[in-house]
Each structure stands twice: as structure tokens, then as C-alpha cells.
Amino acid sequence: MSRWAPDARERLETAALELFVENGYEETTVAQIADRAGLNRATFFRHFADKREVLFGGEDVLAGLFADAIRASSPDAALAEYLQAALTAAEAAMTSQQRAKVAQRVLVVAANTEVQERGLLKHARIVRSIGTALREQGVDELTARLGAEVGVLAFRIAVERWMEAGGDEPFSVHATAALTDLRGRVAELDLRPASDTT
């Protein structure tokens, strides 16, 4: 098949995740990934900087979806509305077809410390992207930082629940529930009685 096939990136990603699960991340080479996909190494490097990017390339897409949704919201929106818009936008990337790949990524990342470190860098990049978009909408610095961290935590919780649920339930259902849960728990911070230290 032609190396210019329009689905080359998808084929490379599928092949890489299969091999990572079958053989381990460290043991899998770019040449093996390209061969499994029916492509060559040069085509792999046209789509991915390295094999770690197969696992985290989608994070940049998510960061863009989150930030664009916040920027498209009303400047008068509340913080929770911005975060809800961002999480709802993520559904474009979190389709039922992607569920199996998400599960594979989780397995691979959990088994490899080096990959976990790259994941933390990508996580920080998403937090910065959300925080920047919130500040552009007039949210103050500290609130934007808090909102970005809460938004990413809500996303991660939603992913966990979405994967556990299986079936055809859309990602947005879990995202909305996760954000609602977190908002409730944050509100509880003010409701707990102060301990008597005297």
C-alpha cells in the first residue's frame, strides 16, 4: 500500500499500540511499528517525532479542543461553564472507536516510568493551555490556575469512568458527572467545621 495512504497515521498508531501491549514499550522498535502498519520508517517519522508521541500525540489535540471551546464561550461565563464547554469539546476526540486505544495507552503508560514522565509533561502543557484560555477570557490568574487543574482532573476521572462503563454511553455524560462531583467536593471545603486546637 502507498506510503502516502491517507490513513497512514491511524495505521501506525494502531500498530504501535498493539505491539506495545504485545511485546512491551521498550522492546518495540519504530521499524516493527512501520512493518506492522505496512509502511516504512520514513513515513513513521513524518507523523511522529518518536514512539512516545504515538502515546501522547493526541494530547495536543485535546489541549486545542479545550482551549478553543473556552475561547468560543461567552466572556461573561462562570468558571464552571468554561470548564463544561472544554470537557464537552473533548468528546470529538473521545469517540467509542477510540475507547480500545485509550485502554491500550493506559496499560502501556502504567508499565513504563519513562513514558509516565512524558505524560506528566503533556499534562502540564494541557493545564497551561486551559489556564491561558481562561485568562484570555478575563479570569484572574489564581482562579485560572485552579480552573485548569480542576478541568484536567475532571477529564481524567471522566476517562476512567468512561472506560469502566463500556457500552455506547458518550464521553460527555461522564465528563459532566465528573465536573459536578468535583464542584461539590470543592464546595465542601467551606462546610467542614474548623477543628478546635485549644
Describe, in plain words, how this protein is organized in 3D:
The chain is mainly alpha-helical. The N and C termini lie far apart (77 Å). The mean pLDDT is 88.
List keywords for this structure.
single chain; 198 residues; 72% helix
Write the SSE topology.
Blueprint: H1 8-23, H2 30-37, H3 41-47, H4 52-72, H5 79-89, H6 99-110, H7 113-136, H8 141-165, H9 171-188
In N-to-C order, the SSE pattern is HHHHHHHHH
**Rg (CA only):** 19 Å
Which residues form runs of ≥5 with pLDDT under 50? none
Question: Distance between termini?
Answer: 77 Å
Please state roughly what percent of the residues sit in beta strands, choosing from under 5%, 5-15%, 15-25%, 25-35%, 35-45% or over 45%.
under 5%
Oligomer: single chain
The SS-based structural class is mainly alpha
Summary, kept brief:
The chain is mainly α and 198 residues long.
